[in-house]
């Protein structure tokens, strides 16, 4: 294939691509090239190993300079998806968490529906060597698994980005299902994180999370359960109120 022409980032609303702890600048560049091929332009990087900007990424991007120049760097996954209401995480392996799993085509169709409804979406891609960890996955409400040869399913980061971005480019834009929230908007991931911290603080004080070796798994499972619920901003506020009321009753009791 020939070298792509340099192009501006598309104006149409689209999901962000979040590369978590990427190791090789070349893979970042090739991911940017794949994104622009398929009409995606928002790239977010979480703690890139070799820092940013990276000359190797620019060389490998084959002209997708606009994507690289507008890329934003974050210290954590929580920071990178804090303004999102929908997050899909890619993984090749089964994890201990109970999470909804879809294939790339279904993920692309749902992303189209969510974004058409005014929501903000992102897709997480894990580091080359290990993939996403459980602490990364709990920021997602949906998991994406690419069905490949079960005896050899290894993809590098840029290949995975291309597969998902291509499905996005081919997906129809007409939603076949919507969530009616009236005037309430879906909660952002930052708002959910604040709720989790509030809940976990009270659970610690009440003694519910009293076994140190079990606490990390219990916290992850609680977060994954609430992520699947897809609460609205108002529902998150209501949950804060419930937690505060029960905590006050417990302290007075």
Automatic annotation (TrEMBL):
Its EC number is 2.1.1.200. CDD domains: SpoU-like_TrmJ (cd18093). Residues 16-166 form the tRNA/rRNA methyltransferase SpoU type domain. Its main location: cytoplasm. SUPFAM superfamilies: alpha/beta knot. It catalyses: cytidine(32) in tRNA + S-adenosyl-L-methionine = 2'-O-methylcytidine(32) in tRNA + S-adenosyl-L-homocysteine + H(+); uridine(32) in tRNA + S-adenosyl-L-methionine = 2'-O-methyluridine(32) in tRNA + S-adenosyl-L-homocysteine + H(+). It is found in: Cytoplasm. GO terms for biological process: tRNA nucleoside ribose methylation. GO terms for molecular function: RNA binding; tRNA (cytidine(32)-2'-O)-methyltransferase activity; tRNA (cytidine(32)/uridine(32)-2'-O)-methyltransferase activity. GO terms for cellular component: cytosol. It is an enzyme of class 2 (transferase). Keywords: Cytoplasm, Methyltransferase, S-adenosyl-L-methionine, Transferase, tRNA processing. Catalyzes the formation of 2'O-methylated cytidine (Cm32) or 2'O-methylated uridine (Um32) at position 32 in tRNA. NCBIfam families: rRNA_methyl_1 (TIGR00050). Homodimer. Belongs to the class IV-like SAM-binding methyltransferase superfamily. RNA methyltransferase TrmH family. This is tRNA (cytidine/uridine-2'-O-)-methyltransferase TrmJ. The lineage of its organism: Bacteria, Pseudomonadati, Pseudomonadota, Alphaproteobacteria, Hyphomicrobiales.
